[in-house]
Every structure is written in structure tokens, then in C-alpha cells.
Amino acid sequence: MARVKLDNYVVPAAPRLGFKGWLRWIWRQVTSMRVALILLLLLALASIPGSVLPQWPQDAAATRNFIAENPFWGPVLDATGFLDVFGSAWFTAIYLLLFASLIGCIAPRALHHWRELRRPIAATPRSLARYTGAGPEAAEVTVDDALGRARAELRPRTGRLGALTGYRVRIDRRKDGSVALAAETGHVRELGNLVFHASLVAVLIAVAYGTLFTYRGQAIVVEGRSFTNAVAAYDTFSSGSLFDPADLDPFTLRLDSLDAEFSDTGRPLHFQANVTFTEPGEQAVAETIAVNHPLESGDAKIYLQGNGYAPVITVRDASGEIAFSGPVVFLAQDAAYTSTGVIKVPDVTTGEQLGFKATLYPTFLEGPFAVASIHPDPANPVIEMLAYTGDLGLDEGVPQNVYTLDESQLSPVQDEDGQPVTLRLALGETVELPDGLGTVSFDELPRYGAFDLRADPSLPWLLAAAVLTLAGLATSLFASRRKIWLVATSEDGTTVVTGAAYAPAHDTGVGTVLERALAAAVGRAPAPGAQEREDA
After folding, report:
1. Using CA atoms, how far apart are residues 337 and 328, in angstroms rounded to an integer?
2. Domain 122-186+480-535, what fold?
3. What DSSP element (H or E) covers 454?
């Protein structure tokens, strides 16, 4: 070591770490348990923005609107990765550092634990006076018989964890003629600790695997219509970065009918979708999808997420040609299924494009001051509409929300007094639009089902890792390290046995084990309640 002379003293200079020394120091810091806990906390905190802020992979439209509504913070959060948290560089860095930290903690500890298991246990101390003791007790047996009985008592018994919780026993003959027995157990505590940390790594791997390969899609299917399992057929679809759309299980789902039951007061009782499920090369099968009873297809499950009405509307333009005809999905706004929808009619033969904002009342009732639906069932379905003319904005190539109407380039259709016209249609009724714009018909009222398809291949592995995590944690918390010692000496043809034990302060059962071992050595029955206390 270099020395630096300072006044009259010679002070040793601190050694330089060098490049390898700094790497070794950084690795020790990263693999310390303190840093592992900090990284685990950081990972939890970093996940919060992903559940609070809109995310590009889950809802691109909502994310785009968020940026537009927040001209300053929106671009800043987007540039820093907060609108794609789980795909950002800083979240990945925390994830990888946590991996390295946990693996760096586990590997040396596992090696040390393996060496401890193979290492012979320590011999019995010369003096047992400073430990919790029992005896001495005398018996008319030989020394070997006494310790043989004690050794048999300490062996694992049926119904226990076998060798993991059994005692490793060592018997030594001392120079003074005595024979000492040393028994030790509790290595399962460290094993549980290792299982706990290894399972945490497995949880992280399972979560990462699920994030990369999972997929989820939502689709609305009207009664009498079919859905094909392809990305283009979904209303919304999200998947992991490594998921290949070609891996989707090919099938066709036809919604034959949707059963919805309500009480007299309008409380929902039961929802069930009756479908026809067809796979390539297989015969069509009738299936049912109910709440909390999904339909399984390969590694995916199809859930019934919602339902509502999709009235069939026919719009004829000024020349009498059909400009629009088909079911329109209306979204329920209250418990009585008062629903709103939008009808866009861009393909008119003459005149301006048409748009409608509509409200459906399944059981219509008109009061002195307002109209409302008094029950979800379609006992008296009525639709009220506001009509607009102008440019719908569909020719600009910008995607629009099918449930909203862009009124920036539209004008409401007005009556002679200059007031917006409200159209009211009962089921099967046709009304004429003012100014000869055409007609609108309310033809049918089918229901629709909103289906949610989810597939996460990591779920079985995640469940197994979570169970192992709890098992390892419970083992490390409740298992205890114990040491039992017995010393037998022969005095005038009589064997005298003295015992002692060592265990943590919270381990109240070690005294019972010592009592049973000593009782077995001297050939007497253990104290009353000793067996029950140990089992408890």
C-alpha cells in the first residue's frame, strides 16, 4: 500500500478502486437487498401513471384527445413515455435492474445454502449451562441405547414435511467417556426465503411474458349477425408487442338471440347470449355466454360484457332512394336503458349529407314536463331525433367516433318558426323530413351483445409463481432454526442424561421437543401435553 508523508506522520493512502473495482462495487450495490426493495417500490410507483393516464397501446383515440386537450402537458408526457408507460425506456430499465438485483441476491445465497446443507453440523458444546436445559435424569440403560432412542424420536414422522423439517443428528464420543448428541433443524427457513425471492423473479417473468404476448379485443354483434375472429373485425383491439395477429384462433360467432330479464322495477336479473360457434372444419355448435360464464376458444375466453338495443333505421333521401339502412348501436345511459345513438348518412343522391342525433326510449312515457323510459324492456319503444344537414367530415380521411356527431359543419333542420325539428318515431313508423329532405323509418328493434375476448398465456404461470411466493414467505416467517443437545454419561452402571436447546425467542415449541427427546432417552413417558404443544 502506498504511503503519503504528512508532517511527522505517515498516513496510508486509500487504494484506488480502478475500473474493475468500480464495477464490483456497483454490482454489490445493485444486488443488495436494500436496492432490491427500492427497485420494487419504484416499479410499483412507475405503474401508477399507466393506470391513471390514457395509454397509446390500450386506447389510441383517448390518448390523442388527451394530448389535444392538454397542449402543454400532453406533448411533454408523451415525449417522456408517460402515455406508454410499460413500453417506455425508463420503465424497462427499472424492470431489468430489479431482475438483476433479485437474481444477484438469489444466486450466491442459493449456493451458500447448498453448502450449508452439505456441511456437517457442529459438535455439542462442552458446557450446556448457558442454554435452556433439562435434566439430568438417570435410567437403567446403556449410553448407546439412551441416545439411540433420542435419535429415533428426532427423526421425521409421518404427516410432517419429512427431511426438510427433520433433525440432522450427530453423535460424538468424548475423551471423558461421555457421549454427546447434537441435532439441528431449520434449514427449511432459508429454503423458504430462497423460494420466495425466486418466485418473485418468476412473477416478473410471467408478467413480462404476458405483456408481450397477450391480446384483447371488443366487438359489438347485433342479433342475427356474425362476427369473425380477425383483428379488422374488432371495434377495439390491443395486444403485446410480440403478438402475431396470424395466431388468432379462426372462428365465427353468430348471435342468434340475447336474453335479458328484468324485474318489474327494472332491476336486471339475467343476461345470456345464445350463439352459434363455428370453427374451420368443425360442425357449428350452439353455445351460451352469460355473465361470469365465458365461452372458451383455444387459449382465449369470450365474455359477455354488455348489451343494449340496435334499432334498424332506414333513411331515404330527397329523391326517394335508400341512402342508409341497417341496425344502429345505441348506448344505454341509465338503468331504464334510455339510449343514445348517431346516424350518419353521407351517401345521398341529391342535396347535402344528413346526420341524426337520436334517443331511444324502450318503454316510452310522456309527462307534463318531460319524456322518459320507465322500464328497460321494449314495451313501447319510441325514438326521438334531431336532424342535421351539411358536411359530416367523413371525406377528410380522419377517423371519427361512431357515437358522436361533429356539428362544426352541420346545420340543424328547422321548422317554419326557425326552431330545430324533433322527429318522433314509434316502432314500424315512418316520418317525413322537412323541406322534402326525405323520410326516416323505425323498422325493427333487435338487441346487441358487447363481447370481450381476452387471452393471456401467462396466467397459469403467474398463478403458480404467486402460490410459491406465498408458500415461501410463510415458510420463511414461521419455520425456526433449532438446536438440541443431549449428553449421556455412565455412572455406576446408570446412565445420566442432560439436555439443552437453543432457538429464537419466539419459538416456544423447542422446549417440548427437548422434553420428548429426553423422555425417550431415559425410557419414560413425556410430560402431559408435550405432544399437543409441539403439534400446535
Report:
1. 15
2. TATA-Binding Protein (3.30.310)
3. strand 447-455
3-state secondary structure at position 499 = strand
Query: 449 pLDDT band (50/70/90 cuts)?
Result: very high
* Residue 386, all three cell numbers: 334531431
CA pair distance 158, 171, nearest whole angstrom: 24
CA dihedral 147, 162, 200, 505 (to 10 degrees): -40
CB 195 within 8 A of CB 475: yes
Judge whether 427 and 409 are in contact, CB under 8 Å: no
What is the arrangement of strands in the sheet containing 285-290, beginning at the earlier edge strand?
Answer: 226-228, 252-262, 268-278, 285-290
CA distance 418 to 414: 5
Residue 520's SS3 state is: helix
Q: Give the pLDDT of residue 23.
A: 85
Q: Domain boundaries in the chain?
A: 19-117, 122-186+480-535, 211-308+450-465, 312-447
Rounded to a whole number of angstroms, the distance between the first and last alpha carbons of the chain is 59
Angle value at C-alpha 227, between 221 and 233, nearest 5 degrees: 100
Please report how the helices 89-118 and 18-30 are oriented relative to each other, as an axis angle in degrees rounded to 10: 90
Which DSSP string corresponds to 76-99?
HHHHTTTTSGGGSHHHHHHHHHHH
The answer to whether the beta carbons of residues 258 and 449 sit under 8 Å apart is yes
**What is the spatial distance between Cα 500 and Cα 335, in angstroms, rounded to a whole number?**
73
Q: pTM for this structure?
A: 0.73
Q: Is 119 left (phi over 0), alpha (psi -120 to 50) or beta?
A: beta
| Dist CA 122 CA 485 (whole Å) | 11
Closest by CA position to 159, among listed 460, 422, 531, 456:
531
d(CA 455, CA 114): 39
In the chain, the amino acid numbered 317 is D
Instruction: Say what the pLDDT of residue 1 is.
Output: 47
Enumerate long-range contacts of 265-274, CB under 8 Å, 24 or more apart.
266/335, 266/336, 266/374, 266/375, 266/376, 268/376, 271/304, 271/307, 272/304, 273/304, 273/307, 273/449, 273/451
Beta strand 322-327 pairing with 353-361: unpaired
pLDDT confidence of 11, banded at 50, 70, 90?
A: low
Q: Is 245 exposed, middle or buried (0-12, 13-18, 19+ CB in 10 A)?
A: exposed
